[in-house]
Amino acid sequence: MLTLNDKNLVHNFNSGPSVLPKEVFEQASQAILDFNNTGLSILEIGHRTALFQEVMDEAVLLMKELMKLDDEHEVLFLHGGATTQFFQVPMNLLNENETAAYLDCGTWGTKAIKEAKIFGNVDMVASSKDKNYTYIPKGYSIPSTSKYFHYTTNNTIEGTQMHAIPETKVPLVADMSSDILSTSMDFNRFSLIYAGAQKNIGAAGVNVVVIKKDILGKVNRKLPSMMDYQNHIENGSMLNTPPVFAVYVCMLTLRWLKQHGGISEIEKLNDAKAKLLYDTLDSLPIFRPTVAKEDRSKMNVVFVMDNPELEKEFLAECKANGMVGIKGHRSVGGFRASLYNALPFESVKALTDLMRDFATKNG
Ligand SMILES: Cc1ncc(COP(=O)(O)O)c(C=O)c1O
Question: Which of 188, 225, 244, 334 can bridge 304 by disulfide, Cβ–Cβ 3.0-4.6 Å?
Answer without folding.
Answer: 334
